[in-house]
Specification:
This protein has 3 helices and 9 strands. Helices cover 25% and strands 23% of the residues. It is α/β, with parallel strands linked by helices. The chain has a single domain, classed as Rossmann fold, CATH 3.40.50.
């Protein structure tokens, strides 16, 4: 099922929320489907890396006829919790964090559109935003991807509660997309199909003055 040559294109199906999944997200935009919004955020994160690390990518519709070459990526949002940005920024120590866990399948369309070549899971959360009290790590230690600089700020002016809460999910979604790109890139690089440009982040424990902190994993079979 593994590709024998570098893929020329990547086709992406927006992730679905399966029955029974944990999904607690309120969209900041009235009338917007939060399921689709989060799924698009993951896709957007993937697209920022795909062309450089794998191949150009685009979204395909569920009823669209698939080509006979390239990679197809689909997946599920297993846990998506918005959390509380006020607690993350005001107190820290992991309080109010958001969560995003996904399962991912990658198909080598030259071989099959039914049996995946690669399956894995990602897990992460937004306590990468350092709390105003007790922040000891400035890098996004909870990001499920190669280490990226944290982007966290307290902006002045009015902001709706939904917008404040959704920021953590926005960052989680985009980091998750980048993690997926890094993982696929890693498997292709191990087969010498693409030049090595990144590594997926592995889970573990990080010692801090306040105790050990979990580092999430991008799981591989």
């Amino acid at each position: 099922m593994a590709p024998m040559t570098a893929p020329a294109a990547v086709y992406w199906r927006l992730f679905e929320v399966p029955p029974g999944a944990e999904f607690d997200v309120s969209s900041p935009n009235k009338g917007e489907d939060p399921h689709r919004r989060v799924a698009q955020l993951v896709a957007d994160g993937f697209f920022t890396r795909s062309a450089r690390w794998i191949a150009p990518a685009r979204v395909v519709k569920d009823d669209e006829k698939l080509p006979r070459s390239g990679l197809l990526v689909d997946g599920r949002l297993l846990r998506t919790q918005q959390g509380s940005r006020a607690l993350r920024l005001g107190i820290g120590f992991g309080l109010g964090r958001s969560y995003m866990d996904t399962s991912v399948r990658v198909f080598n369309l030259a071989e099959s559109s039914q049996k995946p070549w690669l399956t894995f899971k990602t897990t992460g959360g937004s306590n990468m935003e350092p709390g105003l009290v007790g922040a000891v790590v400035t890098a996004p230690i909870s990001a499920p991807v190669v280490v990226l600089p944290a982007i966290a700020s307290v902006a002045g002016g009015a902001m709706s509660t939904a917008s404040r809460g959704f920021k953590g999910i926005t960052q989680d979604g985009k980091r998750t997309g980048r993690a997926i790109a890094a993982t696929i890139h890693d498997r292709l690089a191990l087969r010498n199909l693409v030049g090595r440009k990144a590594y997926p982040k592995r889970g573990g424990r990080l010692a801090t003055p306040f105790g050990e902190v979990d580092l999430p994993d991008v799981g591989l079979p």
